[in-house]
Design brief:
Layout lengths: L1 H8 L25 H15 L9 E3 L6 H9 L4 E3 H12 L3 E5 L2 H13 L6 E6 L6 H4 L2 H17 L4 E4 L8 H8 L5 E4 H14 L13 H7 L6
Parallel strand pairs: 1-2, 3-4, 3-5, 5-6
C-alpha cells in the first residue's frame, strides 16, 4: 500500500520535492480498522520515527482517521505534520459546501462521523458510505470489484448532497478515477488525502511555518526529561 501511495503522487509531485515512504514496522497491526489498531500502531511508529525526524522537512500520516500519531509527532517536532483525513476534509471545505466520505467497513463509517465532528466540520458533512471492504481487501480483491464498490458509495454520497467526496483510505489513492467517473457528470469532485496532504505540507514548508510550541504541542521530550524519564 505504501508503494501504491508513492506511485499515485508521481504525476503532481514538484521536482524539488522527495517523498520517502515509511511502513509501520512489526509489531504494528497490519491495518488500522479500530481505535486499538490506531493506538498500537502509533506507539510502534513513534519509536521508529523519532531518529528520523531530523532528516525530513514534514510528515504525512497516511491513515484516514484522527490517528493518535498525528498529535504525538506534533509534540516531538516543530516540523509540519498532517494526517490524510484532515487534509481531505480541509480541502473539501475550501472546494464545496457539503462533503462525504467513501469508507471501508461499517465501523469506519461510525469512526469517521465521530472524527469529522471532532474537527468541527459536522455542519458540512452529509455522512460516510461504506464499501463493505476491509483495508487490505482494497488491494487484495479484483480491481473491478473494488472500483464498483467505491463508485457506488460515491454515488450515494452525491445523492445525499455531497459536492466533495473524500476517499476514506490511503489504499484508495490509486483508484480515484473510478469515483471521478461516477460523480463527474453530477458536478461533484473527488478529494484524495494523500496527494492533497503532500501539497499542503509543501506549502507549509515553503512558507516556513512550524507547529506552535506554547500550548498543547509543547515538547514531549522536554516533559519526559523533566520527570527523569530517559526512554520512550
Amino acid at each position: 500500500m505504501t508503494a501504491s501511495c508513492l506511485a499515485s503522487l508521481a504525476p503532481t509531485l514538484p521536482t524539488s520535492v522527495t517523498v520517502t515512504g515509511f511502513t509501520a514496522p512489526h509489531p504494528s497491526p497490519t491495518a488500522i480498522e479500530s481505535r486499538s489498531d490506531g493506538i498500537l500502531s502509533a506507539a510502534t511508529c513513534l519509536r521508529a520515527l523519532l531518529p528520523l525526524l531530523p532528516h525530513h522537512d514534514a510528515f504525512l500520516i497516511a491513515c484516514f482517521s484522527a490517528h493518535p500519531l498525528i498529535d504525538a509527532l506534533r509534540e516531538e517536532t516543530e516540523k509540519p505534520v498532517i494526517g490524510i483525513m484532515e487534509a481531505a476534509l480541509y480541502a473539501s471545505r475550501m472546494l464545496g459546501g457539503r462533503m462525504g466520505i467513501v469508507a471501508t467497513g461499517q465501523r469506519s463509517v461510525v469512526m469517521h462521523k465521530d472524527a469529522v465532528r471532532g474537527y468541527g466540520l459536522g455542519p458540512f458533512f452529509v455522512g460516510a458510505e461504506g464499501t463493505g471492504l476491509g483495508v487490505l481487501e482494497l488491494e487484495g480483491r479484483e480491481r473491478g470489484e473494488v472500483e464498483g464498490a467505491m463508485g457506488r458509495a460515491a454515488e450515494r454520497l452525491v445523492e445525499r448532497g455531497a459536492d466533495c467526496v473524500c476517499l476514506g483510505c490511503a489504499g484508495m489513492a490509486g483508484i480515484k478515477e473510478a469515483c471521478e467517473e461516477v460523480v463527474r457528470a453530477r458536478g461533484a469532485v473527488v478529494v484524495e488525502g494523500v496527494g492533497v496532504g503532500v501539497q499542503f505540507l509543501v506549502g507549509l514548508v515553503r512558507e516556513g511555518l512550524r507547529a506552535g510550541k506554547s500550548g498543547v504541542y509543547r515538547s514531549g521530550a522536554e516533559g519526559r526529561a523533566a520527570r527523569g524519564q530517559d526512554w520512550v
